């Protein structure tokens, strides 16, 4: 039996490429520290560098801040982390009044893109707005 020498450290730590973690909490700034901590812990599990971990923490915070301004009163903020062997895909979403996606020509969007790598947004038929982030670990060829 041979072992794939390209296997990532994440697999060695038990993080399979299909692990998904979902956190739902009140859409209020007071709870963002929970998401920042979860982001850092999951990124560390995937062997992201300290700089990449900090970038992700700030990116999640920024994405949430963009969405909280539109959140319906009493709505929940939902954050989903999809863990890959060398990347993390993060989706942050909240119910809004009008389903308006964040503007992509703002300074906040530029900062978000610089921190996270790939950034996207979408709006659902129920006025749920989602910001998606994809961060690849340095040295990954994907």
Mean pLDDT: 87
Which range does the strand content fall in? Answer: 25-35%
The third-level CATH topology is: Heat Shock Protein 90
CATH top level is Alpha Beta
Count of structural domains: 1
Number of strands: 5
Decide which structural class fits the backbone: alpha+beta
Beginning-to-end CA distance, first to last residue: 26 Å
Radius of gyration using CA atoms only: 16 Å
Could you name the ranges where pLDDT drops below 50 across 5 or more consecutive residues?
1-15
How are the strands of the largest sheet arranged?
A: 1-2-3-5-4
Q: How many individual helices?
A: 4
CATH architecture: 2-Layer Sandwich
Would you mind describing this structure in some detail?
The chain is of the alpha+beta class and 142 residues long. Helices cover 33% and strands 28% of the residues. The chain has helices at residues 9-12, 32-45, 50-68, 107-116; strands at residues 19-26, 76-83, 87-95, 118-123, 128-136. It has a 5-stranded antiparallel sheet, with helices on one face. The protein starts with 8 loop residues before the first helix and ends in a 6-residue tail after the last strand. The relative contact order is 0.19.
